[in-house]
Amino acid sequence: MGISRAELRQYLLVTGNYWAFTLTDGALRMLVVLHFHQLGYGPLAIAMLFLFYEFFGVVTNLVGGWLGARIGLNRTMNIGLSMQVLALLMLTLPATMLTVPWVMFAQALSGIAKDLNKMSAKSSVKQLARVADQQGESRLFRAVAILTGSKNTLKGVGFFLGGALLGLFGFTGALWGMIAMLALVLLSSLILLRQDLGRSKARPKFSEMFSTSTAVNYLSAARLFLFGARDIWFVVALPVYLSQQFDWDHWQVGGFMASWVIGYGLIQAIAPWLTGKKQGAVPGKRITLAWVASLSLIPLLIAQVLPLAPELVLVGGLLIFGACFAINSSLHSYLIVSYAREEGTSMDVGFYYMANAAGRLLGTVLSGALFQWYGLEACLIGSTLMLLVATGLTAKLPECTHGQAA
């Protein structure tokens, strides 16, 4: 069977909410970086502004899945939208009142909001596109890939939008524009989003938020090291290296990073066509293992040949890494939705994205530390080691999901 018109409308509404939130999330990050750079904050101080953003992602994904199963995904999505509006309002204070603790707290709210929104959207796909036959699993993979890929593309667009809004309207004016947009999205969501979406019939206990599924646990652990392997050199080491070694200004660095994220998202969106859709297969252990093993070779090769032509090797290597990483991420995003229980999907998805957030946090901390102590090559070697661990964990996954997974 296929997706009904009512389910399709709900899927489009969830996707629209996710898109609007992601656009403001990317714009807010660029606004904060550029604005506080203009105020004279150093790189380390600016990085600290986002520490709680990443930390609370770990907590939110763990608790948010349980919350979504108890009160419904529509409510957790609307809570996320409301908290983002509040975070934006907190930053509209005069510059003299925007102390580091205040901005860190606002970013913490934004991080909680982002992960509530993401968990709700990803879990909703399972509810809105669930079918048991082979065609249904293929449709589910496409739905997840489009949702995930479009999110990352829009996050990159948000980087550009943040810079443009800052130049046109200033920091406070840009914030009020985003507040108005999100308020309209929240209002439509409150009116139109189905009230029982994703709500578990049984009231899950708080202790049940930790997954008991072997497949979900191994996939979550692999996700932790996969995203740690990206952020260990992408978050801090790469932009600082581009600035220091190649003398790129912040517009060049920001533009390149934004373009990378947009391309990353586009590759994610077409991942089903790159991983066997034409052959009628949906991804399973064998395909996922092959892609993560291939990815583990890329940072090692970059580290080995970097001294020969640093700028060419780093930019070209990052593009190849991004394309391969995007496919790995899309495969993971499909597998967690497929592995997740029909009853209480959000709890498995929330646990999985808790591991995702923990990987980002670990990678961010190691990125700064390894780069400061040993340089970019050490970050690349660390990325390789993390990917090898992710490969070993992927090998522990079940042979297949539903249908004829490869």
What class do helices, strands and sheet pairing give? mainly alpha
Query: Would you tell me which CATH topology applies?
Result: Growth Hormone, Chain: A
Which stretches are low in confidence, meaning pLDDT under 50 for 5 or more residues running?
131-135, 401-406
Mean pLDDT across the residues is 79
- Count every beta strand, where a strand is a DSSP E run of 2 or more residues: 0
* Estimated share of beta-strand residues: under 5%
CATH 4th-level superfamily = MFS general substrate transporter like domains
Head-to-tail CA distance between termini: 22 Å
CATH top level is: Mainly Alpha
The main β sheet shows up as: none
Order of helices and strands: HHHHHHHHHHHHHH
What is the helix fraction of residues, given as a range? over 70%
Radius of gyration: 20 Å
Which CATH-level-2 architecture? Up-down Bundle
Number of domains: 1
The shape is: globular
Query: Given the structure, what is the number of helices?
Result: 14
Could you characterize the architecture of this molecule?
Helix content is 80%, strand content 0%. It has 406 residues and is mostly helical. It has a single domain, classed as Up-down Bundle (Growth Hormone, Chain: A), CATH 1.20.1250. The longest helix is centred in the middle third of the chain and has 59 residues, at 134-192. The two termini are 22 Å apart.
Short description:
The chain has 406 residues and is mainly alpha-helical.
List the keywords.
single chain; 406 residues; mainly alpha; Growth Hormone, Chain: A; 80% helix; disordered C terminus
